[in-house]
Amino acid sequence: MGRKGSPRSPQAEGGSRAASPPSSSPPSPLWVLPEELLLLICSYLDAQALGRLGQVCRRLRFLSSRDLLWRRIARGCLNSGFTQLGTDLEAGIPVKERVKVSQNWRHGRCQRETVLKWKCNLMPWMELDREYLYLSQAENIQAYRLCPDGTGLQRHPQAIFSGHREDVCRFVLVNSHIVSGGGDGNIVLHKIHSSYSFKFSAHEQEVNCVDFQGGLIVSGSRDRTAKVWSLSAGRVGQCLHTVQTEDRVWSIAISPLLSSFVTGTACCGHTSPLRIWDLESGQLLTCLGTDFHRGAGVLDVFYETPSLLLSCGYDTYIRYWDIRTSTRASTCLHQPAAQCTASVSVPPICTPPWHQPCTS
Fold first, then answer.
1. How far apart are CA 353 and CA 222, in angstroms?
2. Per the confidence metrics, is the pTM higher than 0.85?
3. pLDDT, tens digit (0-9, with 9 covering 90-100), for 274-288
4. How far apart are CA 34 and CA 211, in angstroms?
C-alpha cells in the first residue's frame, strides 16, 4: 500500500494499460514538393538566408548546400574560383565553402597562425604550387612542402635554389621553371626537378620584376629599362629588345597571347606608369590611364584574360582594365572608387630599397 498522497500506477488502479506512444507529427507539406521545385524556391535566397535555412534540419542543410544554389552567389564573390565566363577553376572544393572563405576575406575575418618564422627582417616573394610553397629568403629561393593534414609547412626546406649574390627581388614559377631577378642585376633560370640552372647578367641595377612565357623572359629594372630575352636553343640569354621606360620598372607581365607585354613604373615622371609594348619589335603600343598621382607607382600587374588586366600600386587602388576598346586607348572599368578592401602595414625596416615610393 502506498503512502498517502503518492501517485498510483496504472497497475495499482487495477488496469493493465500500457503507456500510449507519443503521437508522431504529420509530415511537412514542404517535402511533398519535387526537389527541382525546392531548388527553384531556394535560388531566390541570398547567402545569409541560405545559411540560416541550413540550420533548420539535416535535410534542409543538405538541400541548401547544393553547388547549384551557391554558384550564382560565388560568381559575384572575390576569389571564389570562377572566371568571368563562369568556368570553375576549383571543382574539387564545395562552392558554399568558397563563398564562406570569400566573405571572411572581404570582412577581414581570419585565423592567424605562424607557419614559418625566421630571424632576419626580410620581405619575401612567395609562390604556391600544389603541395609546395616557394619562398625567397635573401639570395636564395627555398621550397617548403605543405603538411599532408593541411596544418602548415614542414620545418626544413625540401630544395634550395641559389645563384644570386644579392637578395632575390622577384621570381615567377612557370611550367616547372623558376625565373628570378636579383639585386645583383642578374637573372637566374632553374628547372625545379633537375639540377639545371642558367644565369646571365641582365641589367646595370637590381632586377625588380620578371615574367616568363613561351620561351621568352621579360625583365624590368631600377635602371629604367625593360628587356626581352630569348631562351631558344643557341640563343639562351640573348637580349632581343631594350625598352627605355624613362622611369624605374616595378612590375611586368607578358600577355597570354604572347604578342605584347605591360610595364608598371614608379610614376615619377609625366608619362603614364602603365604602358603596353609590342613583344616582337619592342615598340610602344599604348598607355593606360592618366589619373595617377605622382609617386603612385604600379607594384604589380596581372593578365586575367588576354584583354583584361589588373593593376595595383602605392595609391592603394586596384584598377581593372579592358584593353579591347582601342589599339591606342584603353578603358579603366573600375576607377579609384574601387579601393583596395585589404591592406598590410609593413614596417620600414622590412621595405626593400627597390620598393621605396618616389620622393623626387
1. 10
2. no
3. 999 999 999 999 998
4. 53
Q: Are the beta carbons of 123 and 352 closer than 8 angstroms?
A: yes
264 neighbors 313 (Cβ within 8 angstroms): yes
Nearest residue to 172 (alpha-carbon basis) of 217, 229, 235, 205: 217
**How far apart are the C-alpha atoms of 265 and 273, rounded to whole Å?**
5
Measured between alpha carbons, how far is 325 from 8 in angstroms, rounded to an integer?
Answer: 90
* DSSP, res 179: E
Question: SS3 breakdown of the chain: % helix, strand, coil, rounded to 5?
Answer: 15, 30, 55
User: Residue 53 corresponds to which cell in the numbers above?
Assistant: 535555412
Q: In 3-state terms, what secondary structure has residue 21?
A: coil
In Å, what is the CA distance from 314 to each residue of 148, 182, 297? 37, 22, 6
Name residues whose C-beta falls within 8 Å of residue 75's C-beta, 6 or more positions apart in sequence: 82, 86
Residues 318 and 322: their CA atoms lie apart, in Å, by: 13
- What is the length of the chain? 360
Residues forming beta bridges with residue 241, ordered by sequence position: 228
Strands (DSSP E) found in the chain? 126-129, 132-137, 140-145, 159-161, 168-174, 177-182, 186-191, 197-201, 207-213, 216-221, 225-230, 238-244, 249-254, 260-265, 274-278, 284-287, 298-305, 308-313, 318-322, 331-332
Tell how strand 298-305 and strand 284-287 pair up: unpaired
Residue 42 CA to residue 63 CA, distance in Å, equals: 9
Closest by CA position to 197, among listed 167, 234, 160: 160
pLDDT in tens, 292-341: 888 888 999 999 889 899 999 888 888 889 888 754 444 455 443 333 33
Find all residues with CB under 8 Å of 327, minimum gap 6, and list them.
285, 286
Strand, coil or helix: 339: strand
Q: Classify 144 as helix, strand or coil.
A: strand
